[in-house]
Each structure stands twice: as C-alpha cells, then as structure tokens.
Design a protein that fits this description.
Blueprint lengths: L8 H17 L4 H13 L18 H18 L7 H15 L22 H9 L10 E2 H8 L22 H7 L3 E4 L5 E4 L1 H11 L2 H6 L63 E3 L4 E8 L11 H8 L5 E3 L6 E7 L14 E12 H10 L1 H11 L4 E7 L5 H20 L4 E5 L2 H19 L4 E3 L10 H11 L5 E4 H12 L3 H10 L6 H10 L3 H9 L4 H15 L11 H12 L2
Parallel strand pairs: 5-6, 8-9, 9-10, 11-12
Antiparallel strand pairs: 1-3, 2-3, 4-11, 5-7, 7-8, 8-12
C-alpha cells in the first residue's frame, strides 16, 4: 500500500522521516521506528490525536509526544484547530455518563463549539482575506495566480516556496482545509477558480472584527459588500455570447529590451530561401568565456547572493542578469567592446552552445503537474542551443509526496534524456550545483578560448529563418561552430515568450497530461485555433453516439501517427473531457 493511501498519511510521513534519519545515523532506534512505521501503515483506523497511537506496536509515550509536537506546529502553520487530547474527551464523556445515571451532581453546561477563525497571518487567514476582496455576489472567482497575488501580503509564509527546503507544503496547502471545511468552493476546468461560500464570508467577517486585523488595517473596518479591488474579476455582462476563454498561465512579463533586435520575417519554405552571408570571425584571444546566471537563482529570500558569492569563491564569478530563457548559460565576452560593432553586430557578447535549466525536486514535480515542464523543453528546443543541461536537485522531501510522484519524475527524466537528448545532472543540494557550474565554467574556458568563433550577422536573422539556417549550417559544415550575439539570442527567446494565438492554443493543449509539444502540434495542424477545436467537438452531436464521436475525434484524426506523436485512446478521451465536455 502507498503511504499516501494510509489512514494517517501525515503521521506516517513523520515516522518515516525519523526512520530514515535513524538508518542514516545507524542508531539503536531503527527497530522502534520500523515497528511503529509498519504498524501505523497497516492500521486502517484514522486517529484524531497522536496519543491514541499508544495502542499500536512501537508507539510509546515519548514517540507520541514527538508526533503531538509536530502536529501542533503543523496546525499553527496551516491555521488548523489542534485536535483535543483523548483524555479531555474521556473526562467530558464520563461526566455526561454520570448525568445519564441520575447523579445528584449538577450537569455541566455543554461547551459551545468555538467559531472557526484561522490563525493570524496563516495561509488559511490570507486566502480568506484575499477571496474577500471580491464582491459577495460576484459569480466569477479567482484563479490560483490571482489569489496568491492578493493574499501573499497577509501571510508570513510563502505560497510558492516551502518555508523549509526539506518540506513540500507551502501556505497554499491551506486551501485544501478551507475546501474541506466548505468555506471555499472551487470550480472550472482546466483552470480552477476559487470563491468563498456563505460560511466562508462569515469567517471573513469574523476575521475583520478581530483586534489583530483592526491593528493591521489601522482600525478601519471594511464594508462587507465592498466592490472588488481587482477590476478584472468583475463578472461579464449576461448578454455577451459565451466563447472559449483563453488565459495566460503566468503573469505578463515586462517586454525585453532586446525584443526588436531580430525581426519576424517571412516563412521559409525550403533551404533555397535561406540567406547567404559572410560570418564575423572572432580570433582566439579576443574574448573570454563567462558564466551568466539568472538573477532569480537564489537560495532563499533572505539569502539572495549566496549562489553568486559561492561561485565567485570557486573562481567562476557569474554575470548576473534577468535571462529570457534558462537559469544559466555561457557567453564569450569580447575584450574590445567595439569589436562586434565595427563589423555591423550589436553588443560585445556571443552566446555559446551551452544552457542550463535548474530544477529542485519539488519544483520539478510542480512543473510536471501543471505542464510547465513540457513547455520549457519546447522553448529550449526552439532556442537552437545544442547542449542543454537539466540539473535536478534531489532535496529531502516529504516521503509521501516523493512516493506519489516518483514514477512521474522518473518518466520525465527518462524522456528528457532519451526523447529530447538533453543531459541530466543530479545533485543533492545547491552547493553541489554550484561546484558543478564552477567546473563547467573552467572546462568551457579551456574548450573555447583557444579557438575562433564564427558569428552569424544579426542583420540576416529573422525569427522564421533562425532554426532552419542554424540546422543547414550545422549539416553543411559540421566541424565549425555557429553562434549569434547575446542581444539577438534574447530577442529570439523573447519572441518565443510573446504568445500568438497559436502559441496560446499549444500551451492550453499541453496542460492535459500526456499531450507533449509534438502531440499538441499535430492537433494544431488539424484545428488551427481553439474556436475551431471546440466547434469540431460541437459538430459531433449529443447523446450516446455524440459522446462516442467526441471521445474518438482526436484518435480518429491522428490514427496514422506513430512513435512519440501517437495518441492513445485514453488521451483522446481526456482531451474530449476538457474540450468537448464529454
């Protein structure tokens, strides 16, 4: 049985964590923890309080107290009420039993259940406050991204990054509690939206009546029927016809300063349409190799410069920059800043054939779940960089989460290596990643600084001819390397980020599990827009026969495909569920 399917998954995860630690230290407690772990995993009873575990093999008072301490911290972090100790419940039950027997003692007044109010500045607290910025009668809820944006200021923990690198949960995990308590309802597919229920609005009002909230807001009481603070959440007019909605999965990026360096250009039907040019030749000794590091690569919000400082200590001081693609890459920087300009190019940096995408294990799991993983690989392929390195940091995580997604992670890594041909480097922590990047920097300095570089002039490049031109040059002159300037590379990468309707459609398709970039392209070849795709499902009709036609639509239209592009029946049915309400 999977740990996640246990009757007590959270308690089991803590016991498993201590068992693993005892094994690592080769301590005498291994047997005790092993007995406790196996008996709790096999037990079908759901326990409300750790003290109840003493009836199981391996659980003594000390172990139960440790679990109780962990549970208290967990409840405080997630704004949950701590379950009452079984002894206090027994005392209450005993008193009730004596009354039933006609005892002369006066009956104790039953304690009224305390109204639920999340802990101040906890995840649940912030989510309720965030959702209360909507109008109480609004019919449109908030997406996860929208809600996090308004809720984060009201929470001491992050909604996107675990407070402890060894744990998997964030403040967003409190949403599950709010849904279970029926304070929040969620709807929508594939994009979930959240809103407060009537009970949720009552909790929001109770929060705003507390002294802590009053002091935080300067003593100003908010009207309960306030207008939404975010205009985009207003419901659409009823007279507006319903059409498939298209929403970006990520916040809009600030336009790149290099966005217009490379023009779009016409499509390239064949190699005869490719431009001819004389390359810019950089002789050995005219440049040096440097590591570029994205400014968002930090260890923690409170330790933003750690990676940069540690790389500098190891002789690989990085150039920090907001990168359009990847988390790190290597460039050749000209000693003479006017060398490229004198030959009609821009800047003084050349992009080399190496780029790094760094993923912590929890981030990798998250990107697999929401489809970002396939999208990122798709963009890396379109970048034209030959050597792509995926660094996977296998940090310590909740054992239940690891077991739940172990197969998906293994499959994603294998696909990255075999299908995409990318190199996967596994490290155990950030320090190992830093050492690897430092070694790579030294190796690439030795490789490139002693040979000439052929640079493609930016004036001949367009976003349409870049990949065909690069492929043609690599096939015709395999012994030579072909490179472009950093401004040109960033311009091309930013164009791949600014989405056309086609790009949005592909992203929407890839949110369905199993639909890779290649499969999404096959669908887009047959149905050019989301509107056409939805209409194709509508044309299948209704009833049992219509339902069957919807489920077989994609499979029937792509039955000739083989290999990685092939669709399974299950995939076709899943797509029909999302796009055709099948």
């Amino acid at each position: 049985m999977d740990d996640a399917d246990s009757a007590n998954p959270q308690l089991l995860a803590w016991v498993k964590e201590w068992l693993d630690l005892a094994r690592e230290r080769n301590s005498k407690g291994v047997t005790t923890y092993k007995n406790a772990y196996e008996s709790l995993k096999a037990c079908p009873i759901t326990f409300e309080h750790p003290a109840q575990l003493q009836q199981l093999k391996g659980f003594g008072p000390k172990l139960c107290e440790r679990l109780e301490d962990n549970l208290k911290k967990y409840c405080q972090q997630n704004g949950l009420p701590m379950p009452p100790h079984p002894k206090s419940r027994k005392a209450t039950a005993s008193a009730g039993g004596n009354d039933a027997e006609g005892s002369s003692k006066p009956a104790k007044k039953a304690r009224k259940p305390k109204a639920y109010v999340p802990a101040f500045r906890s995840g649940a607290f912030a989510l309720v406050i965030g959702l209360s910025t909507l109008d109480e009668d609004a019919s449109v809820g908030m997406t996860k991204a929208e809600l996090i944006e308004v809720a984060q200021n009201h929470c001491d923990s992050s909604f996107t990054a675990p407070s402890d690198p060894t744990k998997f949960y964030t403040a967003w995990n409190s949403m599950k509690t709010l849904v279970q308590k029926e304070l929040v309802y969620e709807r929508g597919r594939p994009l979930r939206r959240y809103a407060l229920t009537d009970e949720g609005w009552e909790v929001a009002k109770r929060i705003k009546e507390t002294d802590q909230w009053q002091s935080e807001t300067g003593g100003v009481r908010e009207p309960t029927s306030a207008q939404p603070t975010i205009p985009s959440f207003q419901p659409e007019p009823a007279s507006r016809p319903r059409s498939p909605s298209i929403e970006a999965a990520e916040p809009t990026r600030v336009p790149s300063e290099y966005q217009n360096v490379v023009s779009d250009g016409p499509t390239i039907p064949d190699d005869s349409s490719l431009p001819t040019f004389t390359p810019i030749r950089l002789p050995p000794g005219s440049f040096s190799v440097h590591l570029l590091l994205d400014v968002r690569e930090v260890r923690a919000k409170t330790d933003r410069d750690y990676m940069q400082e540690e790389l500098a200590k190891q002789g690989a001081k990085p150039i920090m920059r907001s990168m359009e693609l990847g988390d790190a890459q290597w460039i050749a920087k000209c000693h003479d800043p006017n060398l490229l300009a004198a030959q009609g190019a821009e800047g003084d940096e050349i992009v080399l054939d190496w780029i790094v995408e760094r993923k912590r294990l929890d981030d990798l799991i998250g990107s697999i779940k929401d489809g970002r993983f396939h999208e990122q690989k798709f963009r890396l392929k379109r970048s034209g960089v030959k050597k792509v390195i995926y660094i996977i940091e296998e940090i310590t995580m909740d054992p239940a989460s690891i077991q739940r997604y172990e197969e998906a992670v293994r499959s994603a890594i294998a696909s990255t290596q075999v299908v995409n041909g990318y190199f996967v480097k596994k490290t155990s922590k950030m320090d190992d990643t830093i050492r690897y990047l430092a070694r790579m920097t030294k190796m690439l300095k030795r490789t490139y600084e002693g040979k000439p570089l052929n640079v493609i002039p930016t004036r001949v490049l367009t976003s349409q001819n870049y990949i065909p031109l690069l492929s043609h040059l690599r096939e015709s002159t395999p012994s030579s390397g072909w490179y472009i300037t950093y401004p040109a590379f960033s311009s091309l990468a930013s164009k791949s980020e600014s989405m056309t309707l086609r790009d949005v459609f592909l992203k929407m398709l890839m949110t369905t599990r199993g639909v890779t970039g290649e499969r999404a392209l096959e669908i887009q070849k047959r149905w050019k827009t989301p509107y056409e795709f939805v209409k194709a499902f509508e044309a299948c009709g209704t009833g049992e026969q219509g339902l069957k036609r919807k489920r077989d639509l994609v499979l029937g239209q792509t039955s000739h495909l083989v290999g990685r592009k092939k669709f399974t029946k299950a995939m076709s049915q899943k797509i029909a569920e999302v796009w055709g309400d099948a």
